[in-house]
Amino acid sequence: MIEVKNLTKRYGKITAVDDISFTVDTGEVLGFLGPNGAGKSTTMNIITGYISSTSGTVTVDGSEILSEPKKTKQKIGYLPEIPPLYIDMTVRKYLEFMFDLKRVKLPKKEHIAEIMRLVGLDKHGKRLIKNLSKGFKQRVGFAQALLGNPPVIILDEPTVGLDPKQIIEIRKLIKSLGKKHTVIFSSHVLSEISATCDRIIIICDGKIIADAKSNELSAALSGGQRMSLVAEGKPAEITSELEKIPAVTKVRRGGAADPGVKYYVEYKQGEDIRRDVFSAMERINAPILEMKSGDESLEELYLRLTENAKGGEAS
Amino acid sequence: MTAIYRRELSGYFNSAIAYVVLATYFFFSGLFFYSYCFKGDSTSLSYVFANMFYIIMFIIPVLTMKTFAEERRQKTDQALLTSPTSLTEIVLGKFLGALTVYALCCAIFLLYAVVISFFAQPQWSVVLCTLLGIFLLGAAMIAINIFISALTESMVVAAVVGMAAGLAIDTMSFFVSIISVEWISWALDRINFLNYYTNFTYGILSIADVVFYLSVTGLFLFFTVRVLEKRRWS
Q: Which pTM does this prediction carry?
């Protein structure tokens, strides 16, 4: 449905998006994950034709955004990071405007009523957009993206700034959209993406650093096994002591756990290092406060990947 | 294009802008009409028209300052630019919206002509010709100010720069007289807006004048499209 090939965007000397390629199949819900400023919004703005790429192509359902902009744009519903709302209009007037602007060929009244019902705005048609709460504004933004039932829907951080209840509602909405539409949505919150998406692309500093099915992501990316550890003592000493254990391949310091500090230990497949860790920590008199073996959580994986990508660039 | 045109018009009339602009235009044109025609016992509207540029200079930047600057600031341009509508249609829709409000402003002169007709026979040919002149002048000024609005993200900057441009146009003949380099003053004289306007106020409908205003309008609308296009690529 969507094919992105060698997409690059430079602003002067800054490369915002660096040679990105990926495809999205029909009916797939793709999560776009990355820290702020990673290039998510830029990529989405290029796909929707808001800005142009420096090089590379975007094809949506067989038509190319640069050579056939009108045809391509008709196939995409876009909710940018800041919903493009005319705050001096009422909800219904605004949606009617967007309906005309998008040249939707469906029966106007019925279609707008249907969309408003879908996003839960049916009782708010006469309210001025500037008087709506942030959650409702977001819904209006959603509604305009859904107008005309475009086959592709692109949502840029749709849940930012919403309260937990609204976030759950929006996620449900995205999931239900996935049945009829191809959806790309971005977020910097991993749990949200893994809860709603079939596939995750992690993007950092303009590059794709991971692309996998959401349930396979951690398995695909982690060779060996991992454990996490919270221990009290001098971090340098603890790290060097952990590294002395033969089966350990890598030790990474996490954040302060108060008391103690968190460490992530990678070790060879099939080994069990718990006893070795215990005796090592005992040797340097560093009490273990918590020890957890097993898969790294997605959150940690995400942090590690994005940090690695950044570190790799710096060195 | 019609969607954008209608949205522009409703934007003007749902906010204070259209009313403030109309009121200002009506008030000052009425003042000029009163002092030249009533006090001066004249049926000629030429003096009134000749002075209207001072009002146009201030109200048009106010009318157009929002067009692109505000869209960009509120990020609503994302909706326009990602919709299946071309840049030319967007620019034209906005231009025609502002032009409609301006046309309503100008329409007050028809009323003045009717008022005169109660006392004496107005020269309809002169009135209508001048009306066309002031309309074309306004159209060119709107195009220039929309272009200025497309260059910035701030309405205030757009309005101030637009007014400065108006002032520059107004004082053009002054510059023409003080610049001693002949070809510069010659060139400035050729692009002096008001030269082309004066003929209209005498009731002379010359093709050259009409073409001048239409070209300026077309040129600046074209520039606006290019500015928007360029922003997409940089």
A: 0.82
